[in-house]
Amino acid sequence: MVWNTTARLGEPFIKKFVEERELSVFLAIDVSASGNYGSLDHSKRRLAATVAAVFAFSALQNQDKVGLILFSDEIEMFIPPRKGSPHALRLIREILFCRPEGRRTDPSAAFELLVKNVKRRSLVFMISDFICDDFGEKARAASVKHDIVAVQVVDPAELDLPHAGRLRLEDPETGEQFSVNTSSPRVRAAYEANREKWQLALDRDLRKLSIDRVEISTDPEVSYLPAIHALFKKREARRTA
User: Between vectors from CA 104 to CA 98 and to CA 107, what angle results, nearest 5°?
Assistant: First the structure.
């Protein structure tokens, strides 16, 4: 006890408590089947791995630990946070070469793991296309305990339906096939309206939970770096305000 130490030393003993500032960073990566899609040069999975590498090495440069959660509609892999470049490179390899058991996008298990198994408040970069239902309800408890950033991966063909005539399409997550006349103005207008409605709902859920969102595109002509720089700048300004 402090008073015992003071008596033994014959002078006041002051115990200093230093706040631990080392941060744990988690990369929560969606490895569901929709991540294999890419209408141009890169798939969403490959872009996710590239951006995850940026976050991982930025964290290591800041002397923070980095961990990994790979999820589909279940937890595919969990790697606890550690430091070091070899560790970071391993995380990137796991993202690229993971062969998931599940096919659908459902972050519920990832959020549950963050709440129950990650005891210390962490910064979580969740990289996904977020094509799932009821995101807000699933994220609520995790967003209270951890600082979550939503990194939404999009493909140009998902934002604007290609004008390519009648196509036979397949949902990569369910295997369902259907015919679509992409040249029909009515079909294209309905697709655009539904896509916009879905995005507005996602944005609304994220705002309610105070989760930052940044959008990155598989379009090789659109660099992801300005969006990430703007994200960090906004967060830093908010922190120092």
Answer: 85
Q: Average of pLDDT values for 74-89?
A: 96
Q: Edge-to-edge strand order for the sheet containing 147-154?
A: 75-82, 65-71, 24-30, 123-128, 147-154, 212-217
Residue 9: phi and psi, rounded to 5, are: -80, -25
Residues 6+ apart with CB under 8 A from 189: none
What's the farthest any 2 CA atoms get from each other in the chain? 90
What pLDDT is recorded for position 19? 42
pLDDT reading at 21 higher than 70: no
Long-range contact pairs involving 138-142 (C-beta distance under 8 Å, separation at least 24): 138/106, 138/107, 138/108, 138/111, 139/107, 139/111, 139/205, 139/209, 139/211, 140/209, 141/111, 141/115, 142/111, 142/112, 142/114, 142/115
With a CB cutoff of 8 Å and minimum separation 6, the contacts of 200 are: none
Amino acid found at 117:
N
The whole-angstrom separation of Cα 76 and Cα 210 is 27
Q: Per DSSP, what are the bridge partners of residue 79?
A: 68
Interatomic CA distance for residues 95 and 77, integer angstroms: 10
Q: What residues have CB less than 8 Å from 117, skipping those under 6 apart? A: 78
pLDDT digits (tens, 9 = 90+) for 167-225: 888 888 888 888 989 889 898 899 899 999 999 999 999 999 999 999 999 999 999 99
Enter the pTM of the model: 0.86
